[in-house]
């Protein structure tokens, strides 16, 4: 692998091979998501516990201090909204010049396998890889499921992840599932990162699924709402960091959460 590509990956993924990405890209199809109305304020206390920020160019320029000392994963697909006809109808929104100008450490693009827009989004991924490889920029594919979050099984997720890797993604972000998640990871020749989905009822639930996914081979998380929509986002972020980077169990993570919360 070329030096630039490897260097960018090393900035995103720690020496232990694990990572904690913080996504704040939800507004690109949801608008001002709860607790993300002022993204710059939301991320300030949480950033120290994360390894990278997943964000669109608009929020990066308008709301994030250029003195940021974390690598940026730039969200480069979009073009749809929650109230539009089909969330899957995404295209590339950001040029390679813009990716370079914003000093992105990586880029993220959604693919919608099994939808009417499967071909369009898969070809966008392939085109993006073609452009980014020239400049040593890793592409993270997001196996998006639109409104069907939590309804996709391991068979579907494994297929979507494998297709993303075959088309050249360097990292694949997908959803955890309670049955056979190990098969999703095993079928994917590049590292798998877990997304969060809508906010869980309890913190322990989040810690348990993240721990399980890590045990089954995921290299980390890209968790948004379960962090910054929690009334104690710093405590959640600290606890998650402990699972991802310090091998904490869900029980230990919960203790860190409780201690940080009351500290
Ligand atoms: C939106 C995304 C988000 O980055 C992803 O869903 C993670 O955020 P959350 O944990 O809130 O689901 O890709 O399309």
List keywords for this structure.
single chain, alpha/beta, 263 residues, globular, binds ribulose-5-phosphate, TIM Barrel
Plain-language structure description:
By secondary structure, the protein is of the alpha/beta class. The chain has a single domain, classed as TIM Barrel (Alpha-Beta Barrel). It is 43% helix and 15% strand. It contains 12 helices and 10 strands. The strands form 2 sheets. Strands 1-2-3-6-7-8-9-10 form an 8-stranded parallel beta barrel, surrounded by 6 helices. The chain has a two-stranded antiparallel sheet with strand order 4-5. Strand 8, helix 8 and strand 9 form a beta-alpha-beta unit. Helix 9 packs parallel to helix 11 and helix 9 runs antiparallel to helix 12. The radius of gyration is 17 Å and the shape is globular. The N and C termini lie far apart (45 Å). The mean pLDDT is 96. Ribulose-5-phosphate binds next to helix 10.
Indicate the mean pLDDT.
96
Strand order of the largest sheet: 1-2-3-6-7-8-9-10
Proportion of residues in β-strands: 15-25%
Named once each, the bound ligands are: ribulose-5-phosphate
Proper CATH architecture: Alpha-Beta Barrel
Rg computed from alpha carbons, rounded to a whole number of angstroms: 17 Å
* Number of continuous helical runs: 12
- Give the oligomeric state of the chains in this entry, treating copies of one chain as homo and distinct chains as hetero: single chain
What's the short story on this structure?
By secondary structure, the chain is an alpha/beta fold. It has a single domain, classed as TIM Barrel.
């Amino acid at each position: 692998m070329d030096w630039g590509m490897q260097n960018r990956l090393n900035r995103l993924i720690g020496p232990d091979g694990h990572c904690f990405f913080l996504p704040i890209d939800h507004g690109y199809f949801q608008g001002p998501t709860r607790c993300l109305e002022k993204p710059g304020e939301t991320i300030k206390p949480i950033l120290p516990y994360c390894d990278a920020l997943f964000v669109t160019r608009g929020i990066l320029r308008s709301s994030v201090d250029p003195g940021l000392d974390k690598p940026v994963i730039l969200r480069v697909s979009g073009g749809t909204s929650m109230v539009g006809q089909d969330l899957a109808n995404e295209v590339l929104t950001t040029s390679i010049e813009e990716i370079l100008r914003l000093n992105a450490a990586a880029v993220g693009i959604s693919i919608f396998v099994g939808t009417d827009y499967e071909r369009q989004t898969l070809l966008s991924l392939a085109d993006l890889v073609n452009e980014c490889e020239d400049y040593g920029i890793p592409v993270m594919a997001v196996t998006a499921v639109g409104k069907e979050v939590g309804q996709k099984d391991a068979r579907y997720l494994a297929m979507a992840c494998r297709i993303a890797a075959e088309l050249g993604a360097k990292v694949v972000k997908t959803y955890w599932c309670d049955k056979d998640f190990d098969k999703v990871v095993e079928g994917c020749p590049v590292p798998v990162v877990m997304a969060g989905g809508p906010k869980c009822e309890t913190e322990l639930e989040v810690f348990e699924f993240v721990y399980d996914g890590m045990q089954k081979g995921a290299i980390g998380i890209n968790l948004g709402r379960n962090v910054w929509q929690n009334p104690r986002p710093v405590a959640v972020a600290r606890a998650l960091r402990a699972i991802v980077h310090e091998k904490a169990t869900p029980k230990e993570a919960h203790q860190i959460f409780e201690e940080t919360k009351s500290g």
